[in-house]
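Re: Re: ligand-bound prediction request (bumping)

Still looking for help on this. To restate: I need the protein modeled with tryptophan bound, output as structure tokens. Inputs repeated here so nobody has to scroll up.
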Amino acid sequence: MEAKKIMLSGIQPSGDLHLGNYLGAIKGWVDRTEEYDNYYFMADLHTLTVRQDPEAFRKRALEQLALYIACGLDPEKNTLFYQSHVPAHAQLGWVLDCYTMFGELSRMTQFKDKSKKNADNINAGLFTYPALMAADILLYQADYVPVGEDQRQHVELTRDVANRFNGIFGETFKVPEAFVPKEGARIYGLSTPDSKMSKSIPEGCIFLMDDETTINKKVKKAVTDADTEKWVRYDPINKPGVSNMMNIIAALTGKSFEQIENDFEGMGYGKFKPAVAEVIIESLRPIREEATKLIVEEDYLRSVYRAGAEKASILAEKTLKDVYDKVGLTYK
Ligand code: TRP
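Reply:
Sorry for the wait, this slipped through. Here it is.
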């Protein structure tokens, strides 16, 4: 039997997981469980680039694992772990810092954006973050890295760094490919349908742990469009707000846009919005309930992340040893 290709990705526990994370990333991971050998982690080292309250950070990171599982990621079939539990990330990260150029890092759009947003804390970690991300990926010889459009540049840099290192030392790293989901999975903010759903605009962001009342309130306030036509039609250019909500329904129920248009034929937005809220509430209910149950099962969660880190370390250590040998460090 041919070995399965390796799929790897991570999400930072920098904010509570939301519908955009679920539909844009985690749901796809779940769907691809059988086809690939999967490594999914909480990118907690990356989260330190922005100041965190330690207790809130720890709690959020644990809830993220509970939510990964509640979303359907089976820990028996996916290696789930914390980045910080596998020291090889930081170790290879340092080596790759030395093979990543200042000029390359300066061109990263996320660095530029984040430096603007955190002007009082432009730390070195924020700058070298893409080299750590390259280490995350290259340690596992990943074939595919499912990421959103905003991370494509970091995966491109990872490929450049891998090629550079391989060019000097011979075949060491698998050169990975970004695996960017099709447009359908891109979810925009309910209050800002021209930009991605984001935790930093909470009024337009449905968090996976939001209760019914909160979801109803957020959907009720969702932006519908200023065009004169007041019915439900898929047209992302002229009707971005309505099209985004159709996209959410389609992604959650598997219905086509045509089916959704038919379902709401002749009805105005007054009927559409409660139906959208209903679909979201019913789809997220089992996830929220399961996560609420898991979050108090501390022993279980600990057993999952320990087993995950142990399994991840096998591959990671192998790559790290090869790298240390090649660059001339003595590896005990
Ligand atoms: N930088 C990613 C983000 O902010 C998170 C991340 C860290 C990641 N390391 C990774 C994603 C490795 C994929 C692969 O979204």
